[in-house]
Amino acid sequence: LTAVTEVCHPSPALAADLDQYNRSHRGVPRVGKFEYVAEFLAAAGCPLPDSPVDAFLARYAVLLESAVAAAPAAPGAAEFLRRWPGPVALATSAPLAEATGHLARLGLRSMDHIAAYPTSKVDALRLLARHTGGAVVFFGDAPADQVAARAATVPFVGIGDNVKSARAAMLDHADTLGELLDRQDEI
Predict the structure, then answer these.
(1) Rounded CA gap, 33 and 12, in Å?
(2) What is the model's pLDDT at position 163?
(3) pLDDT the model gives residue 150
(4) Distance CA 88, CA 113 (A)
(5) CB 141 within 8 A of CB 165
(6) H or E segment and range at residue 22
(7) Nearest-angstrom CA–CA distance, 56 and 41
(8) What is the distance between the alpha carbons of residues 172 and 72, in angstroms, rounded to a whole number?
(9) What angle do CA 135, 122, 132 make, to 5 degrees?
(10) 117-162 pLDDT, tens digit each
């Protein structure tokens, strides 16, 4: 929202609509979000620069770099990953270099596999399930994660309040990974 607002200065009403859209579409590739936003703003008559998606992405990259440098790991993530008894993989909508940079900066356990943009989370989960004989559990903090797990028919553990706690569609739900520390066997 900040990147879009700084690039094209939408009205407060349009900014509120964009904020709602962003909150309900966390965990999806940013290129797709910015393409939608550009179409939405153009249809609303908001003046846009040439190549608005590129402008949004460039501003977002600058904002992300400074914000991520100060961002801590999710509560309980480092200990959970350290204590997880099996292999771990990451499926993210972020580009690979960005994802590996965050993992290194946070000092998190090395991943056995990383699938990053442009690979979809659904494709990554299906591939992991094939390679592990179905022994995959997807932990996610975004609605798109839950949708990807369902589409790949992989059990899902929702983390945080971004993910609706619909028990029928989940293996489990917790506010933080730390709450799941002593439940690896159950999961």
Answers:
(1) 19
(2) 80
(3) 92
(4) 7
(5) no
(6) helix 12-24
(7) 12
(8) 24
(9) 20
(10) 999 999 999 999 999 888 899 999 888 899 999 999 999 998 888 7
